[in-house]
Amino acid sequence: MGYFSSSSSIFVLTLVILFCSIQSSSAQITVLSSPSGIKESEFAYSSDASKVTLALHYETLCPYCSNFMVNYLPQIFTNGLIDIIDLQLIPYGNAKITFDKVITCQHGPTECELNTVEACALQVWPAQDKHFNFINCVETFVYNGQQSQWKSCYSKLGYEEQPINECYNSGLGQQLELGYAKATGALNPPHKYVPWVTVNDVPLYDDYRSFQTYVCNAYQGTKPAACQGQRMDIIPNANSNQMLEVTFMEETSPTTNIKSPMAKARRQMKF
């Protein structure tokens, strides 16, 4: 009888462990397949508590967003700072959503399309280097005023087009965007413009291009070499008197090649 009781206890314990394991796996699957219910910190991959959370809220045809994506953000992959960063990309920006869940984008239907494509890239290629390479490629075409050529990123990078098409055409991409809409709407304080960059949920406002300094300040471990020489005395300014290189929520403008002379002049203007 004692042997039977011991065996039964072991059997029950095994079932409990197996059940908990299944529940844990199901929770991980739910995070990826039910975007409308996930939090900002749960997008694409889980956070590492020892890392600094760097979040970029953006929209694909905002010229200042593409400028940041092409000329500033890639630096963290070459100087090693990515090792201490949990990078989160949220492609929604200043879009709006109606009561019947129709999304309208600030720069028109093409922006909605590319927002959804990039949301799909985050979903189907969860590996950070893979989805970032694709999104960076798309935004490079936007930056150069050649957004109509973005599909060439597939062949350029050797990526398959089918997974993105399936995500987009199945409606999953739309659900992902609804999830990003929810995360954007939950920002505290609310975002005023894009790009809207936060470090550990604290907005950098118009000083977003100095994001590496804020990351280094926030990191609690041994500072990496990339942090050496960074200014450590700056504070985000919510009310800067400088002309901001941002796209405000209530403004509309055509997408421009910000490398052109006209675009350089417009950098000094509010979008």
Describe this structure in words.
The protein is an alpha+beta fold. The protein is 44% helix and 10% strand. It has helices at residues 2-33, 63-71, 75-78, 109-124, 128-143, 152-157, 162-170, 172-185, 211-218, 261-266, and strands at 52-58, 85-91, 96-97, 103-104, 193-194, 196-199, 202-203, 247-248. The strands form three sheets. It has a four-stranded mixed beta sheet, with helices on both faces. Strands 3-4 form a two-stranded antiparallel sheet. Strands 5-8 form a two-stranded antiparallel ribbon. The longest helix is centred in the first third of the chain and has 32 residues, at 2-33. Mean pLDDT is 79; it is low at 1-48 and 253-271.
Question: How would a crystallographer describe the biggest sheet?
Answer: 4 strands, mixed
Residue share in helix: 40-55%
Order of helices and strands: HEHHEEEHHHHHEEEHEH
Number of strands: 8
Mean pLDDT across the residues is 79
